[in-house]
Amino acid sequence: MHLVKSRATLGLLEDLLGFKPLSMKTNTPFHVLGILTVWLLGYAHLLAQSGETLSFKVSDTQFEAPKAWGKIQPSSSMRKAQFAVKREGIQDAGEVVFFHFGPGGAGGVTANIQRWYKQFKEPVEQLGTQTEKMDVEGVPLTLVRASGTFMSGSPFGPKTAKANYSMLAGILESPKGSIFVKFTGPRDLVQDARKEFLAMLKSARIRP
User: CA-CA-CA-CA torsion for 102, 105, 111, 116, nearest 10 degrees?
Assistant: First the structure.
């Protein structure tokens, strides 16, 4: 079981880094995780220093999002922040949404991950799901990835099937209640913007 989890983790890391870190001489999983963490922190820092990010706050936590993303008015009161992510040559825009319901709101990490998986048409076994845990300044962060036919629409309204879509999501367990961040869109768009999304999550700073 641990071997399967390790292989899935390393596969995700190779995808994020753009190379196979286990081909290097120093090749323990801890070394690989260290590379990923340092890289993401450095990427977020460089974006902030270059003025290419937009600061915003959800509950007690401040984030830095790419200015190239279009910050738009949330489409419902449940959404605390919302962005439209566009790429040339891709018709549909991606959507990044932040949710916060206060301490204990919306259930735990596992319940929300399972709920997100059910927003796809295919059974979970066909979604190529990946889950990774890390922390941001001591605050637990769970990352989730899935791909398939996404059933777009409001929770109780009509749905539109979006084939070849991906989801990247994160749950940051902040002191005043978890912050849920979900990025959905065409697979190629989400893949192209994944580093920006992860850098945004790693930029999180608690600001009471």
Answer: -70
- Residue 79 and residue 12: Cα distance in Å, rounded? 28
Give CA–CA dist 65/170, Å, rounded.
14
For residues 102 and 179, what is the distance between their CA atoms, to the nearest angstrom?
9
Q: What are phi and psi of 9, to 5 degrees?
A: -65, -45
Nearest to 113 by CA among 69, 178, 38, 59: 178
* Burial (CB count within 10 angstroms: exposed 0-12, middle 13-18, buried 19+), residue 101: middle
User: The pTM is what?
Assistant: 0.74
pLDDT single digits (tens) 41-93: 555 544 444 458 999 999 999 999 999 999 999 998 899 999 999 999 999 99
**Block residue for tokens 């890391």:** 13
Starting at the edge strand that comes first in sequence, how are the strands of the sheet with 61-66 ordered? 53-58, 61-66, 205-206
Axis-axis angle for helices 2-17, 29-49 (nearest 10): 30
Q: Which two tokens stand for residue 199?
A: 């850098």
Domain 54-206 sits in CATH at 3.40.1000.10
